[in-house]
Design goal:
Length: 245
């Protein structure tokens, strides 16, 4: 229901703005024609001219107000307030970017069908290829690529944002479709120029690029379960020892 409301409001705002813009253009045309065809011996009264200018400014302000309202309506559905709920959750986003930290960067990619030739290229922020690899596992499905942060020459690359490019072909030389994803924990949310971004693995990713969201496992609960299981096993071992004797 919320999505329908936002869509309806946005559509109404757009329609209203189009109507105002049409009236605004008509007003300018009429005002210009009036100024061109006024009687030189009886020119337009300055007070009347001022009132018309005020009316023109009012129409312009209405247009700007509608733009602002449309942006606010859009931010209601996908703004910071909504995106904040993702902090601390594990997500997958359609993104070819990953941050190199501590000599490690990781991507997930999928192949729509088996490939015989796959070339993986890692590019820096300026689009320059710093490393090229040829994976051996090229079956259909999901694959994980972990980069050690070294260039083609073996030198350590500086920390920062890098992107992944995949070129895959089958035995006939036909391109095999692929998709690249970023998996990780959301650590922040921010808004730039009216667009919402999440911080994923140290990289800003547009909100609309999200593919899946899931609650991370609670490590404390896992540790507790393992401890309880271990305690029960020890108790059983102690009980069984005398019986064996």
């Amino acid at each position: 229901m919320a999505i329908d409301a936002v869509t309806t409001t946005t559509a109404a705002s757009s329609a209203g703005r189009a109507s105002l813009a049409e009236n605004f253009d008509t007003f300018l045309s009429l005002l210009t024609a009036q100024l061109k065809n006024q009687d030189p011996l009886a020119p337009m009264d300055s007070t009347q001219f001022t009132q018309q200018l005020v009316q023109m400014t009012g129409v312009e302000q209405q247009l700007l107000t509608n733009d602002l309202l449309e942006k606010l309506v859009s931010n209601t559905g996908s703004g910071v307030a909504t995106a904040v709920s993702l902090i601390g959750k594990e997500v997958r986003a359609s993104s070819d970017q990953a941050a190199l930290k501590g000599g490690k960067a990781e991507w997930t990619y999928t192949l729509d069908r088996p490939a015989t030739d796959v070339k993986v290229e890692i590019l820096d922020s300026k689009g320059r290829v710093v490393r090229t690899m040829a994976p051996t596992d090229n079956d259909t499905g999901e694959h994980t690529l972990t980069w050690d942060g070294k260039s083609a020459g073996g030198s350590d690359m500086p920390s920062g944002t890098y992107s992944l490019r995949i070129t895959a072909k089958d035995s006939s030389g036909t391109a095999v479709p692929s998709n690249i994803y970023a998996d990780g924990l959301v650590t922040g949310v921010e808004q730039q120029d009216g667009s919402t971004f999440i911080t994923l693995n140290g990289v800003l990713v547009p909100w609309e690029k999200l593919v899946s969201i899931r609650q991370p496992e609670d490590p404390e609960a896992t540790d507790t379960a393992l401890t309880d299981t271990g305690s029960n096993n020890n108790s059983d071992d102690k009980t069984s020892s005398p019986a064996a004797a």
